[in-house]
Amino acid sequence: MLDFEKIKSIEGWLTKNEALFLFENAKKVAAKNAIVEIGSWKGRSTTCLCIGSQYGKNAKVYAIDPHVGSSEHQRQFGKVDTFEDFLKNIHSYGVAEVVEPIRDSSLNVAKVFDKQVGFIFIDGAHEYEAVKNDFESWFPKLSNGGVVAFHDAWWFGGVRFLTYLLLMTSNNVKNPKAADTIISFEKAPHNHFIDRFYNALFIPYHFFISGFWGSIKMYLFGIAKSPQ
């Protein structure tokens, strides 16, 4: 099973509840489908997805990241290159055979990616346009019944606005769920009135309860930095 006490030593931003969410969703993905991660940093969330796949049906994990940091990372850390640390971590945790790292932008990869996707985890740049572009590039590749998940959907306004907008207006999403700062929903060929009603009810629940407390948990327990 997933040993979060071990995985949390990898630098990154992920709570135990979020790690288990990724693990459980990766377990469910059929071997013929892909697991796509947009934004890997140094491999904390990647490792959770890979271990879930190993306990599940061994679906391939495609970890897409140029490894130069998102815009907010560059503002915080300056020039970065996380690729060597990423490779070291996936080898150290025994998941290198499950994952295919792709060092490029998600938009470039989406243009040539031809596999059906069972689960998408979007955790790249958090500005509205960036998240919207990631979603619009990859959601068409997601199988019906597949899950798309957004990290930091309470902390960052761009992610929160897009997810709430989709829940309010899209005919193709249903069954929203929250795991601390993650919002997810299933892809549907066409949702029904009851789905849209539930989607709308989920928004205040997430904003005032699950997202708020999830963000506190992230701040207190979910952030790991590399030793100096």
Automatic annotation (TrEMBL):
GO molecular function, one term: methyltransferase activity
Segments passing through the bilayer: none
UniProt-listed GO biological process terms: DIM/DIP cell wall layer assembly; methylation
Keyword terms: Methyltransferase, Transferase
Classification via SUPFAM superfamilies: S-adenosyl-L-methionine-dependent methyltransferases
Gene Ontology annotations for the cellular component aspect, listed alphabetically: plasma membrane
Pfam family, one: Methyltransf_24
InterPro entries: SAM-dependent_MTases_sf (IPR029063)
Name of the molecule in the record: Methyltransferase
Organism annotation: Candidatus Staskawiczbacteria bacterium RIFCSPHIGHO2_01_FULL_41_41
Lineage: Bacteria, Candidatus Staskawicziibacteriota
